[in-house]
């Protein structure tokens, strides 16, 4: 039996123990956006540190102005060094009533098709994915006493809120983070049978629009027809930000958006990802973005604008005849190519200010953001990882453009001059950020096996 | 001293006791729209019944499928009979943090200009106004042992939620409600020194728009650009319901909207109610309605459309990169002239359905409504009331078009064939429906004196 076979067998034989460790991690309600869960975030960081220490890492919890960062490191059998990045924080769970089980009481369920899944908030995003890597490390250490490559592990607690404090930590910790390649496990497979390497990630800008009109809420009987209504103003702005063709109307917004080469588009078309296959499983059928783009372009190579939340006026039971004096919306832009997050934010705000009518004013939120990231397709690290994945899954991984944003990747890449390698085992129907989040047991198991193979390949 | 002078003197001398009774009424948190306040609504009805009984009325609390109705009656010295209508229910108090005192702990405050006010939810709308009438009744009974006219009193508990159960009660109780004139005290004076009789009330339709898109909330990174966003759809609908000129775009919406005769418009212009005087006190300056209409037309003789509340997606602290699958807005239309509430509702819904794009669906709320009401300017009852008010205030009352809606007036008018007479002592800055609602002590005191005079004049 080769060393690698022994490592893989160790993963297979210890799957139940791996799951127990994952469940303990999932029971921690580390919702980073909610100040009420601050202590839980701290507990999640401590949990990661203790796991790393148990695996032989020199590991510490580092405070930040927000939630702490965990950093661990150990040398390996070769000079190659990887930095693994992940996040212990999770999305909020509301609306809680739409969950079929308690979000922080993980359990194994068997689906009608016989597949087993792990059900919990964070199962796929990102605790389950983090543990695929750590369980691969555990198996290598258990079987051989060492690792094929040197490994540093950086696990943050603010990915779901824009990683606001991580860049400063990275800047201050560069010597400890040095690596040849940055491994990230926070993306998806192509489908349940096919692995994927993500070679492009959209960037992100998030902001809030707060519209104010009168100095108080007004009676709509007395003032209706004469007084500016904050919700009307906000709705008008939102509607004006896109035209009938689905294009975003902010002047200069598309600067830096590259056209995808025709051969790549042709390749994408071959993948058979159309509106039915992509949107059908969530109850939709018609791509809602730019009308002259395929659905695969809309989610991979085109920028997007979404309203994530809106509130204003009376939202309780029954009715209230009020003209609201304030309304607010949370928004995000997804960026591609060379779109600059600061320029996009500034152009957006200038355009909104232009749209504001008399008797209304506007303020904004944080406007934080990160640029898009792309990985060169001819990277030697990519080739090694692709071989490892093909060995595990019996078919070559698909290289996909990705759609989500992982704000810190651009920072790590430019500061460390290390290439990112994004390999994840999520599935499109994992309901991350939604009620009933899940992670396939097969993803968890074969994910750990995949990383065991990748670690060996990268040492070659 | 004439009988009337003795009645007025009794009101003056017993003002403190009148206020104590008002405060006890104001302490009852009878918020009709909130099911959690059901018992408080019941307590408010009981309070009114007990007061009526103490004043010599045969009075009962009548259950309805919603909040109960209170009905009392007693004969007077003349054959003339009036029905006084008011409502014991109040608006919600949120946002509570904007109140400078507890909304259900009434108190007297002295304003910087020396004027005294009663501060509480319901002080002006409508508990304080109801008690101006009951305190006038009390004084007449105390001084003369009887009333100049027969009086029935109908106090409901669902005015703020569209009086949904009152029409059926009125239909079933017509013999008990018989009257020559329906008195209502739920409107405003012209200004602090000038009384007013309201001769027009806009009608009302309220409804809710609920937009649904995907079968769950989606991750905006994975789906952004391809998946329909429920808030986007809702904002687009709201924006499309009015054009750039401020006109409502629903086909057929303006059917039944009369043009105000030029001589009436000229009279209105003489009143000096312009954008500065009307909107300035609430921090606004530019009329937001139809651009070719004066502000006084916008609020008195033109229909209006308002969004009263909106909610969708993530509205908590921080950010959440979600594409919401549901968004909802509460809306009201104010109607004038012969606009039919059912036709307006149906046209509105048909138009919204037309606007709904692919991958979105819409449902609606109750769609309840009431038509506008107008009182003939040559009514003899109006002339008698005007004389009484002129005697009290030292100047003739202004007849105003009104703006708010009192849903039951149209029903009472058509079923009883009795003319409505709307005399109120509210002021434009009373903040009804808003935090820090107040009622001028002078309005309360002179309101009671005004009703004492009106009761006598109506008997002549």
From TrEMBL, chains A, B:
Gene3D superfamilies: 3.30.70.360, Zn peptidases. NCBIfam families: PRK07907.1 (NF005914), PRK08201.1 (NF006053), PRK09104.1 (NF006579). Keywords: Hydrolase, Metal-binding, Protease. Pfam families: M20_dimer, Peptidase_M20. The keyword Protease applies. Residues 201-358 form the Peptidase M20 dimerisation domain. It comes from the Bacteria. This is Acetylornithine deacetylase/succinyl-diaminopimelate desuccinylase-like protein.
